[in-house]
Specification:
single chain; five-stranded parallel sheet; 52% helix; 7% strand; globular
């Protein structure tokens, strides 16, 4: 009988032993995976569908559950892979469209998903309650890139683009350059001329000073108190609106001086953003972005669609006046201009200097192939006769190579406002089959561009 019992016990013992081995192997596997792809086991237990996050009853794909898709064989730095998602706050008149075009092209090449409101060009200030209005990513995937015009909302961004998985970036510009560009872009210079009998005879600098007069009572920084900034002052310092001045300073209350609030505000921005690019140093900024993300040089190529050889110059007195009225922007610019130097020091000055030199040469060659520079100045000269640039501005036309030889040329030449229409079609279709959507180049349709871009990526 004892012999019979032992024979019956053996299978049970073996089963227990096998079960223990399986549990040990499972535990080791979980620990190894968590080392390279961190996750929260308790969150998974609480949420049986880890691909979804529940925002007030609305489920959206979970960005922290990162699906390692696309062309990653070229990424050797694990940190670069973990920071593959990008939250870009696109600010006004800072070269944001150039950076946005780069991000859109990178997203297309790597089959990534964009966070945006469909078929429009501005997200305003995204809120969690508005999540239903956003363009959903393709099924089972997460958001990878945000690049529409938007006002930074940290409560929203932190949920959709977790900081440990995403690189937060934006771009700022010297106040004098941004003000000049904004004045022309909005037509405020023409409106100011129309208020005066001899407005047509006024110089651009005179018009600029007349426009600034209205802001003196509310934006003279040296005379401002601890009271909240007047809305007209924020309108002039529009960068504050994009970068959530009201949100951050509301946390501080009115128990500090204005300068103390500015200092704390800049510290908050520094904590939020991994990289603040500088328009005035665009090539350096893009090379630093490339290094942070583990990209290739081609991933940051851009085209100057309307380059201006000579910007109009203000007198020293006018520039000083602009800096005083846009003083907070001026402080933000100075801080992050110095911070860019710190990034370069950290990455290595020689590396960045050599990379920038290589990039400039590569980008110039790319531009020369994409454009027919001999036939571009005259056709669009008339459009700009009222601007301070006069006919110095150039609107180059795509060359035959740019139209058919390299689809990146056509893509980067497209109006930025058209990208949201393109992305909306692609993500909503789920399979990259889209209705015909013509680019500025007649006869070249979006589906052809996308197919060619994807084929280019697959090539060794």
């Amino acid at each position: 009988m004892n012999s019979s019992r032992q024979q019956n016990d053996i299978p049970i013992y073996r089963k227990k032993k096998n079960l223990v081995i399986l549990l040990v192997l499972a535990t080791v596997t979980v620990l190894v995976l968590n080392e390279y792809y961190p996750f929260d086991l308790y969150s998974i237990l609480d949420n049986p569908h880890p691909n979804l996050i529940n925002f007030d009853g609305v489920k959206i794909p979970n960005p922290s559950n990162n699906d390692q898709r696309g062309n990653e064989s070229r990424h050797h730095d694990l940190t670069a892979i973990k920071k593959r998602n990008i939250m870009f706050t696109k600010t006004g008149k800072t070269g944001g469209s150039t950076i946005g075009s780069i991000l859109y092209l990178y997203g297309f090449r790597n089959n990534l998903n964009f966070l945006l409101y469909p078929y429009v060009n501005h997200m305003r200030r995204p809120e969690l309650k508005d999540i239903k209005s956003l363009l959903p990513p393709r099924p089972g995937q997460e958001y990878n890139i945000q690049t529409q015009h938007s006002f930074f909302n940290p409560d929203f961004e932190h949920k959709v683009f977790p900081k440990d998985r995403s690189l937060y970036t934006t771009v700022v510009r010297s106040p004098v350059g941004r003000f000049r560009s904004h004045l022309v872009y909005t037509g405020s210079d023409k409106k100011e001329r129309s208020k005066h009998e001899d407005g047509d005879k006024l110089s651009f600098e005179e018009v600029s000073n007349l426009y600034l007069d209205q802001f003196v009572p509310t934006c003279n920084f040296s005379a401002l108190s601890v009271e909240p900034l007047h809305k007209s002052c924020i309108k002039l310092n529009i960068l504050l609106q994009y970068l959530s001045w009201s949100h951050f300073t509301a946390l501080l209350g009115n128990h500090t001086t204005l300068q103390e609030r500015v200092d704390l505000y800049i510290q908050m921005l520094d904590k939020e953003y991994d990289l603040v690019m500088i328009t005035d140093r665009m090539d350096e900024s893009l090379v630093v972005l490339k290094e942070m993300m583990g990209w290739e040089m081609r991933d940051i190529l851009y085209l100057r669609k309307k380059p201006s050889p000579e910007n109009p110059r203000y007198s020293a007195a006018t520039e000083e006046r602009i800096v005083d009225l846009l003083n907070i922007e001026h402080q933000i610019f100075n801080y992050f201009n110095a911070k860019l130097d710190s990034h370069i020091d950290h990455l290595g000055k020689d590396l960045i200097r050599n990379s920038v030199s290589e990039f400039k040469e590569m980008r110039e060659g790319f531009e020369n192939r994409c454009f027919n520079k001999e036939a571009g100045k005259t056709p669009s000269c008339k459009k700009y006769t009222d601007s301070p640039w006069g006919c110095n501005i150039v609107d180059w036309e795509l060359s035959e190579y740019g139209k058919t030889g390299d689809l990146s040329c056509t893509f980067l030449y497209t109006r930025f406002s058209d990208y949201s229409k393109v992305v909306s079609d692609l993500q909503l279709s789920h399979d990259y089959t889209v209705r015909d959507f013509k680019y500025r180049t007649e006869g070249l349709k979006l589906k052809d561009v996308v197919e060619r871009l994807r084929n280019e990526t697959k090539q060794p």
